[in-house]
Design a protein that fits this description.
The protein is α/β, with parallel strands linked by helices and 135 residues long. The chain has 3 helices and 8 strands, in the order βαββββαβββα. The protein is 21% helix and 32% strand. It is globular.
């Protein structure tokens, strides 16, 4: 018998409410708080479930990261043709461009840092052609 579980990616930062507001707006989710003011969740927006936790000794990750550093990043998928609008939205909300070369194709991918310094990627999720799906 398996116990029901939900997985949540948790990001550490110095100011959880501010970072939660950034991601709630960027991902179209809502902020949920409980009795612990140091732990905030963002839920909604097509399956989004992200949490932000206060770390009183927080230091932002560096980019590019050292070869021996293990870090996670968010990959936010947008429809083909929506990349420029998604980029404008992210930057307006406070994202900082890290590597935003304009690929303008089905493999377009651009890297940013959120207001607390975590990296995330906006990437095109190109629909495979019917011929590719059949094979």
């Amino acid at each position: 018998m398996s116990v029901s579980k939900t997985s949540i990616l948790v990001l550490d930062c110095a100011e959880p409410i501010e970072l939660a507001e950034f991601y709630a707006k960027l991902l179209g989710g809502e902020i949920r708080t409980a009795c612990d003011p140091d732990f905030v969740e963002i839920v909604g927006g097509d399956g989004v479930h992200l949490a932000i936790r206060r770390d009183h000794g927080y230091a932002p990750p560096s980019w590019p990261r050292p070869d021996d550093s293990q870090q996670a990043h968010l990959r936010i998928v947008v429809a083909y043709g929506d990349m420029d609008a998604a980029e404008r939205e992210a930057i307006t909300l406070g994202a900082m461009p890290v590597d935003t070369k304009d690929n303008n194709g089905p493999r377009d991918e651009r890297v940013y840092a959120d207001p607390a310094g975590h990296s995330f990627t906006l990437a095109v999720w190109a629909k495979r052609s019917e011929q590719e799906e059949a094979s």
